[in-house]
Amino acid sequence: MSLLEIRNLTLHYGTTKGMVQAVDKVSFSLDKGESVGLVGESGCGKSSIAMAIMKLMPPNAVIKGGEILFKGENILLKDDEEIRGIRWREISMVFQAAMNALNPVISVGDQIIEAIQAHNEMSESEAWEKVKELYTLVGLDPGRGKSYPHEYSGGMKQRAIIAMSLACSPDLIIADEPTTALDVIMQDQIIQEIVALQDRSDMAMIYISHDISVIAETCGKTGVMYAGKIVEYADTDSLFYDTLHPYTKALLSSYPSIKGEVKRLNPIPGEPPNLLDPPKGCRFYPRCPKKKEICKSQEPEYLEVKKDHFVACHLVKRAKGGGRAR
Amino acid sequence: MKEHLARERDKDWLEDMAGREFRTGLGGKWDRWTKGFLGHWEIFRKNKLGLFGLGLLIIFAAMALLSYIPPLIDPMYEPMTGVDPDILWTQGPTKAHWLGTDFIGRDILSQLLVGARIAFLVGITAAFMAVAIGTSMGLISGYLGKRVDMILMRIADIIMVMPGLLVILILSAVIGKLSVWNLVIIIGLLRWASVARVIRSQTLSLRERPYVQAAIISGASKGRIIFRHIGPNVLPLSFLYMTFGVTTAILVEAALAFLGFGDPGTVSWGMMLQWVWKTGNMFKAPYWLLPPGICISLITLSFYLIGRALDEVVNPRLRQR
Amino acid sequence: MRGRDEILVNVMSLTKIYTLKRNIFSRSAQFVTALYDANFQISDGEVFGLVGESGSGKTTCGRILSRLEEPTGGQIFIEGVDISHLKGKELREFRKNVQMIFQDPYESLNPRMTVYDTVVEPLEVQAIGDYEEREYRVWKALKTVELYPPGDYLFRFPHELSGGQRQRVAIARALVVEPDFVIADEPVSMLDASIRAGILNLLLDLRSRLGLTYLFITHDVAVARYMCDRIGVIFKGKLVELGRTEQVIHNPHHPYTKALLSAVPVPDPRVKRERFRFEELEIPDRAFDRGCVFLPRCAASGRICRRESPEMIEVEEDHYAACHLSTEM
C-alpha cells in the first residue's frame, strides 16, 4: 500500500468572478521513503495540492472530487480533530518563507518545543534534548536554541523551521518552495541537508518548486503540472532524458544552465489559460508546438505509456505491451 | 524631419490606430472614473453596515433638503423666529407641530430639519478643509523629506497636542461669539495634522515604488511626481479621512453649541440641546430633548459606518472574498 | 559617433556609504558600507553583468549609475561625462541617455495610468516631439517589445496585463527616449521560467538591433551566463572577480566565486556538482579597511588576508580577481 495516494483530486476556488478550476483530476502516489518533485509555473496548482493534503485550504476552496488516501484512509473525509492528530505528527509542511512565521518575541528553541509538546507527551528537559538533536540534524549549532529569530540569518531560520517540521518524525514532509527566499549558497546548503535527511530516514517527501534545477537534484520522481493538471510524471532521469510531453520539453529548454554549451532559450509563446473557464480540449493546446486537431476538442487521458512514466498527451503512443490508465 | 516622413509611410501605424478611442488614466476621462466607481460600489455594497450608514445619510440629506419647506407652508414654522400665536411655551406633539414646540413656541421639527442642514454644511466643509490641507502637507512633507519634513511635522505635532476643544473655547472667549463659519475654519485648521501624518507615511512608502523611481529616471520634476504619481494613489485615503473628519466636525459644533459657545443666530442640533438644558426642560420635555440627541448620534454613526466600508474599498486586504 | 570597443561606462573607485543617524546629540553614528572602491568598465554594445547575492551592493550600484542616488566617493563617466554629481539641466540631459528596468513588473507601472500614459511620460518630461510624434513613438516602442498590435495594448491598465506583458511595457518605457545605456535590475527574477526566456531573448535582440549597452544585475548565475559578455562578481560591497563570462565561470579564481558557482543547481539529474568547501556564513561583518572582506568565510586564508585588503590583479587576459592567493599573470 502506498503511503500517500491521490486519486482524481479536483479542487476549485470560489471567487467573485466565478469558480477557478485550480486542480483538475490529479493523481499520483508516493511510497515510504520516496521523494517526488512537483514542478510548474505560477498558477499551475502545485501549492493547492500541498494545502489540500494538509487540509489547510482557504475558506473559499471547494473539493469537487477525488480522494487523498494517506495510509489507506481518505484525509478529505476526516474531521478537524483527526486531521490535527495527523498534522505535524505524520505529515508536516515547510512553507515558502516560513522563516517569517517565527514569533519574534519567543526564542526559536521555545517555539520548537511548543510544537513538540503539542503533539507529544514530553517534559521540558526532554523536549530541549530533542531540540538539540534536531539542530544537529539540520546543521545548526545546538547551543543556539535560546536565541531569538532576529539573531539568526535567513538560512538559519529556514533550517530551524525544517527542524520544527521534523520534530515528530513524520512519515511525509511537504516542502513548498522552501528555499526560494534564500540566496544561492544558503539554498544549496539546505538542499544538501534535505537530501541527506531524506536518505538517512525513511521519510517521504513532496518537494514543490518552480525551479526545475532544484528538483532535478533532490527528487527521485518528478511531476510536471500545467494549468491544474499533471501533464507528465516519471522518475527524474526519464523526465529529463526521455521527455514525452511537449510542455515538459518546452519547459526544460527555457532554463539556462552554467554547465554545457550556451544554447538559445526557447520561450513558450502565449499565456497559461484562464482557469475560470478552461478550454475544452488539452489545456496546453494554444501554445503547443505540436498540436493536432484532436487536441483542440478532446482532453487527453492521463496514461502510463511506459513503465512508471505517465503522460497526458494525444501525441504520445503507448509502448508495446501497453500501460494502464490511472 | 526624417521622423515625419517615416510616419507618413508607416501605414501599419495609421491602420492600427484608425478608429481606436483614446483613453487616459489620469486627467479624468469619464469612462475610467465611472468604471472605477462602479467597481468600488460593488465592494462597498457587500458591507451591510456601510449600506445602513449610507441609508441613514440619505435620510439626513433628505431632511436637510426638506428644511426649506416648513417656513413656506406657514411663517410660524420658521425655526428661529416662528412663533405659534396659539402656543407660547413648550408643549408636546400636536397635529400642527409634529414634534411639539420649544420654550417660546417654535416648531421643533423645523428646527430639527434645519439642524440637519447645518450639520452637513459644517461637517463637510470643515472636514474638507482639514483633509485638503492635511493631504497637501503630507504629500510635500513625505516627498521632499529632510528639512521641510522636519519643520512641517513639528508644526503638525504642536497642533496635534493642542486640546482642540479647549483651544476653541479660549478663542471664543477671547474673540467673542464665533459664527458658524469661523468655527468651520478653526476646525479645519486644527484637524489637518493627523491627516497629514497618515498621508505622509503613505507618501513615504509610495516614494520607493518602482514606478515612481522610473518617473524620476525619466527626468520628471518633483512636482509632477507628487501630483501625478503619488497624489492619486493617496486620494482614496484622503476620502476615507474625510468621512471621519465630518464626524468630528459635527460633534465639535454640537458640543460648542451645547456649552453655549455656538453661534446664537443659527439653529443646530447642539443649539437645540442647549436650549432644552438652559430652560430646565431636560427631563420635562423628552419630545424636545430626544430628537436632536438621536440625530447627532445617528449622523455620526452613519459617517463612521460609511468610512469603515470605504476602508475596505481603499484597502483591498480587508475585503472578504 | 561611438564604435565598438569604445568604453561607454567607466566606473572608478565607486563608494557608497550610508549613515544611520542614531543620536543627534552624540558625535558617533553608524555607517553601512554598501559599495566600496568598485572599478569596472563597460564597452559600447556590451552586456555587463553584476552578479551577487542580496545585500551585496549590486542594486545600489545600479541605483547610483542611474543617479537615483549620488555616490559617496569615486567617479562615474558615461560617454565621457562625469555624472556623479550632475544637477539641473545637465542631469536632465543625462536622463535621456540612461534608463532602467526594474525587478517587479507589478510595481513598475503606475496602476492608475494606462500603458500609453506610462510610455509617453518620458517623452513629455523631456519635451520630445509634438503630440502626434509622441503617439507614434509610443506605438513604435510597443511594437519593438513585441506587443502587437500595439493598439490593443495602448489603453489597457496594468492590472489587465500579465507579468510578462507588464515587463515589456516597462522596457518600452525605457526605450522610448532612445537611450544608449540601459540598467536592468533583476528584470526576470519575478517571472515564470517560460516567460523569462522571452524577455531575455528580447533584451538580447534589442541590444543588436538598437545598439544598446546593458548593465545586467542579477543573483542568478545561469541567467548571467546566458546574457552577459563580461561579468563582475560582487560580495558585501566589493568586486571580487571580473572578466569575460566564460572565463570567470570556467576558471574562477576568487574563493567566493568558486563557492557561488558550485552552489548553483543544474537542471540535469545526471550532473553531480562538486561542492566547494567554505566556512560558516553567519558571522557579523567587519570593517573594510583591515583585511579581505571574505576572510571570515574563507577556508583557504593566509596571514596576509588578515592584514591587507587584496587588490584586483589580472590573472588571465581580461580576467581579474581580488585575492592574495591568486598569482598575477
Question: What do these coordinates show?
Answer:
The complex is a heterotrimer of chains A (326), B (321) and C (329). Chain A has a single domain (4-90, 170-312), classed as P-loop containing nucleotide triphosphate hydrolases (Rossmann fold). Chain A has ten helices and twelve strands. Chain A has helices spanning 46-53, 80-86, 108-119, 124-138, 154-166, 184-200, 212-218, 236-241, 246-252, 293-297; strands at 4-15, 18-30, 35-39, 61-70, 73-74, 91-94, 172-176, 204-209, 221-226, 229-235, 302-306, 309-312. In chain A, the strands form two sheets. Chain A has an eight-stranded mixed sheet, sandwiched between helices. In chain A, strands 2-1-4-5 form a four-stranded antiparallel sheet, with helices on one face. In chain A, helix 3 crosses helix 4 (124-138), helix 3 packs parallel to helix 5 and helix 4 (124-138) packs across helix 5. Chain A is globular, with a radius of gyration of 21 Å. Chain B has one domain (43-318): MetI-like (MetI-like fold, Orthogonal Bundle). Helices cover 73% and strands 0% of the residues of chain B. Chain B is built from 13 helices and no strands. The termini of chain B are far apart. The model of chain B has no long low-confidence stretch (mean pLDDT 79). With 329 residues, chain C is an alpha/beta fold. Chain C has a single domain, classed as Rossmann fold (3-Layer(aba) Sandwich), CATH 3.40.50. Chain C is built from eleven helices and twelve strands. Chain C has helices spanning 58-65, 88-97, 115-125, 131-144, 150-154, 163-175, 193-210, 221-227, 245-250, 255-263, 303-307, and strands spanning 7-20, 30-43, 47-51, 73-78, 81-82, 98-101, 181-185, 213-218, 230-235, 238-244, 313-316, 319-321. The two termini of chain C are 35 Å apart. The interface between A and C is large, with 44 and 38 residues.
